[in-house]
Write a structure and sequence with these properties.
With 137 residues, the protein is α+β, with helices and mostly antiparallel strands. Helices cover 18% and strands 34% of the residues. Strands 2, 3, 5, 6 and 7 form a 5-stranded antiparallel beta sheet that branches. Strands 4-1-8 form a 3-stranded mixed beta sheet. The protein is globular.
Amino acid sequence: MKLVVSLLFATVMFISTTITAQTKTITVTIENISSDEGKVGFALYNKDNFMKEPVQAKNAKIVNGKTEIDFENITPGEYAVICYHDKNDNDKMDFSEYRMPLEDYGVSNNNMSFGPPNYENAKFVVADKNVSLIIKF
């Protein structure tokens, strides 16, 4: 019985270590924030959930116009990041009556074409290394 429990424990530990070793970290930095008011909201998406429920979401404080977050335990694949400056700290992106953004925002790859963000323009690949992104508002 002890042998079975020991083998089971060893198997679980091996699988856990293997899965952790295969996941990566995505570091996102923004360096051109117009003020330290409020916070920056970050959302990580894949193609299936783009601009819906994110894979991970985080908020970060702004210090001297800069902020940085890490999305951790990310499995290899394609992803996109959208972030915005929540100046009034109301946990949402604010828009004018004409649906124009009232707060600065950015996307991975810094493709800021007219209209809402597009997954194909914002996507990047997480493979065998951690990923670092610089997004500009």
